[in-house]
Structures are given as C-alpha cells and as structure tokens.
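This protein record is not my work; I was only asked to verify it. Would you go through it and say whether the fold makes sense for this chain? Here is the record exactly as it was handed to me.
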Amino acid sequence: MPLSDAAILREPTVTVLARPQFNEPAHMPVQWIGDATDGERLSEFAGRLCYMSQRNPAGRSTHEYIENIKKQGHGSVLEHANYSLLLEGVSRSLTHELVRHRAGFAYSQLSQRYVDESEAQFVMPPAIIGDAPLEGAWTSQVSSALDSYIALVDQLMNRYAWVDDKVHRRKMAREAARGVLPNSTETKIVITGNARAWRTMLELRSSEAAELEIRRLAVQTLRVLQTEAPAFFSDFEIYTASDRREAARIGYHKV
C-alpha cells in the first residue's frame, strides 16, 4: 500500500518538557546582576558557593559569570541545570547514535514491542530530500517494509493463537515483526540532560563531520536551548557549511 504524504517526515520537532526551578535560600542570598533563567542562576549559585562569593565582589552579571566559567573550563557547575526535551520526527537510525551519549543523560524511547507500527511514519534522510528519483526509490522501499510488517503481525497473531493473554500475544507478534522495519522508522524519545552534557553532545553532533540527520537535529536543539538558557550556549555559532547545510561550532571546548 503506498504511503501517504503524512507518513513521510522531513523535519524533526523539539519540545521542551522541563527546565530547572531555582529557589534561592533566604540565608544565603546572591547579589544578582542582570536577567537570567533559573538554570543559569542555579549554576551561578553553585559556583559561588565554592568560594562563598555570594556578595559578587567582581560585580559580574550572571551571563558574565557563566561566560567566565566556560572560559576557565569549570563546567561541573553546569551539571546542576537539567533540561528535558521531547524529540519527534527522528529515525531509529538517529537514536541509535544519540543514546551513545551516556554521561549526564537519561532516555525514554517509544517501544516497538508494545506500540502498533502498522501506521508508522518514516523519516526521509536529508541526503535524499529534493531528488525525485531517490525519494521515489526510498518511499517504495519503506512502503514495502511496512506492508511486510503488517502481514507478519497478522500471521504471528495466528501462530500464537494458543496464547490466552491477547496483550502478551500482540507483544510477541510485534517484537518479531519489527525486524523488517527499516532504520528510517520514526520514533519518539524523551531526553533529560544537564547543560554540560548537552554542550558536549551538541559540539559533536552539530559539526560538519556528523551524520546529516543528527546534525540537523543538533542544530535545531541548539536553537531551542539557546532560547532556554542563552548563557550556557552563547559560544555556539550556527553557520552554513561548505556542503550548503547548517552546522555549528563551539567557542569553548571541553567545558
């Protein structure tokens, strides 16, 4: 059965689910200067605690304080600020790479064992988009894979008809049939990471050397996080690379 246009995804979606909430202790106030987000102030508070410099003797704004933290490479205070994002419109090929980033991250991903993929969507690789013959060949292949999955689930449900628990029987069928689904199958994943971990991931995955789909996602995620906490990500620069696609570079490495 041919795929509908809605079943083919060409862009990811990044949604912020959670951000830090900072509650300043009344007995240890900081002399804040300038506007800042809760996550940025949490990191500044943690950094100032190390030297009991809450009175802000250098007269730095929060953004200036964090800029100095990044410059000095004292990134541990950035680990206090966690951001949770929902990623949609990404492929399983992408998440296989993404979950390799372990330190500072937590992941919860859609399960193909439990979720019916008979109406799955598929993420077209960026390298294919815009080339009609390639798009046609790719669409035909993923459509065929989806047809195979649907047929296998039906056949496996019959094979395991002796299993009384229908929920368990569906799980048995889907977990076996999912093997024919391609890496382009769309998935959804919730990721929680601290600001230091996000910086490391974005530095690696937004670079020109990164695979195109994850690079596209990293640039989009960077834009979201620069809005959420500009001081943490202000040293990233988004630019158009020689391959005519967006990439990003970082100012301070190994923070």
About this structure: Residues 21-79 form one domain. The longest strand covers residues 82-91. The two ends are 50 Å apart (CA to CA). The chain is about 40% helix and 15% strand.
